[in-house]
Structures are given as structure tokens and as C-alpha cells.
Amino acid sequence: MDAALKDLGDYLAETLGDTAVTGWNVTHGELTLGVVREQVPEVLKLLKGDARCLFDCFIDIAGADYPERKKRFEVVYHLLSPRQNLRIRVKTSTDETSPVPSVVDIFPAANWFEREAFDLYGILFSDHPDLRRILTDYGFKGHPLRKDFPLTGFVEVRYDDEQKRVIYEPVKLAQEFRSFDAMSPWEGSEYVLPGDEKAGEAENGEGSS
């Protein structure tokens, strides 16, 4: 199978050229194809319709966040070719303001996946028919799968019995963050747990009648 994927990688690189393909490799039985952001629709059209590809089964779109990069987001498309019995992963990169062209016209199933990537990462998709949040609540601020999004979030939701409705409030921590040392008392900690001081007194003969 790796030989077939390598042949396909060579074919795609030659057919699409450097203006569309940034690189490719085969690992774990899957071909990964790097693609220029603006060329994503053209590449997916070829993958779907070309007789040597026939990747007409759209699996999903995934996002990844690398805040240290200038283009912090990777958008990853997974496709399957049932007739060729092959899988391919298509990757492109973007930043917070540059939209990735939508592929809903090519794969209608991409609709909700693009909305999910927008909701959770803030990745923009141009020409999407209905780009709005899909998993978070109305009025939600921020994008919860970004690496710089706080684990506690910004607001919390609760039902107010006096107002008889759901209300949003800023997150309030009931106590300061605790510092955990992760030391095991069975392996010898550097402190005495409450109550353990009695064992030391018994060993020294204190407290006996």
C-alpha cells in the first residue's frame, strides 16, 4: 500500500505543481499532502474527480493550534477513496484573519465541520453559506480549543430561580489555585500529613500508659 501511496504522491505533486502543493509524505499507511491555503478547493476537486484518486468519501475536517507559529492554525481534511481503498490527509495553514476557502460546494458534508472549526478555533472560511457557531452557546465569547483559552472559560451559565431564567456570569473561583507537589506519602514525603504525628509519638514511646 505504501508503494501505491508514494506513486499517488508523485502524481499529485506533478499534476498540481508547486503553486498548489507544498510537500507530501507517507506515514502509518496514509498519504499527507501539504497544500497552499488558496488552492484547497482546486486540490479537493482533483482528489474527488480524478480517475487515479476518486477520494469521493469526505470523512472530516480537524483543526490544530500552534500559537508560536505565525500561521498558528492547521486545517486538516481527511478523505477516503473506497474504490482505490486509500486514505489521504490534506493540510493547510492559516492565521486568525486569513480565511480558508470553503469546500462546501465540493463536499456538502464539510458544512458543519467548517462551522465547528470556526466555533472552537476561530478559523474563518470564505464563501461558507452559514458560518456561525455550532457547539457553544449563544453569546459565547472566545474559542475554547485555542491553546491560550483559559481552562475555566470566561463566563459560567446557571439557572436563576429568582429571575426564572438562565443567566450568564463571569467565572468566579471559590478559592485560590492550589499547588500540588505530587509527592507520594507512601514513598516518603517531605512533610507530615495531619494525624501522622501520632505515629511518631508512638515509636518514641510517648503517650503510652
Care to describe what's here?
The protein is α/β, with parallel strands linked by helices and 209 residues long. It has a domain at 2-137: NADH:ubiquinone oxidoreductase Nqo5 subunit (Beta Polymerase, domain 2), CATH 3.30.460.80. 21% of the residues lie in helices and 27% in strands. The chain contains 4 helices and 9 strands. The protein has helices at 2-16, 40-49, 110-121, 197-203; strands spanning 21-27, 30-35, 57-65, 73-81, 86-94, 100-101, 125-126, 155-160, 165-170. The strands form 3 sheets. Strands 1-2-5-4-3 form a 5-stranded mixed β-sheet. The chain has a two-stranded parallel ribbon with strand order 6-7. A hairpin with a 7-residue loop joins strand 3 (57-65) and strand 4 (73-81). The model has no long low-confidence stretch (mean pLDDT 88).
